[in-house]
Specification:
The protein has 3 helices and no strands. It starts with a helix and ends with a helix.
Amino acid sequence: MDDKRRREICTKMIYESETARDLGFQALHKARDDRDVDRAKEMMEEASDHVLQAHLAQNEILTAEAKGEEIKIDVLMVHAHDHMSAALLALDMIREKLEDYR
């Protein structure tokens, strides 16, 4: 995998993960502050779609490596994976908290 493609994938992972995390917190605030649980649920579904896009980008790297391609691991890639992990954890915790507002 060339450096340009790897950077594109990492950037997509960061963008999609952060969008998912931000939507999750917006959903939490929507449920807590506005008592609009239905809209919060919609926002969480949208957040899930974004985190799925981050996963699909990550899968491109994993698939390339599984096929024997050399994958350069650098700070950007580690950073992208950190963003995705943090978003997944945040969304899991937000889902649990949203149960308090149902």
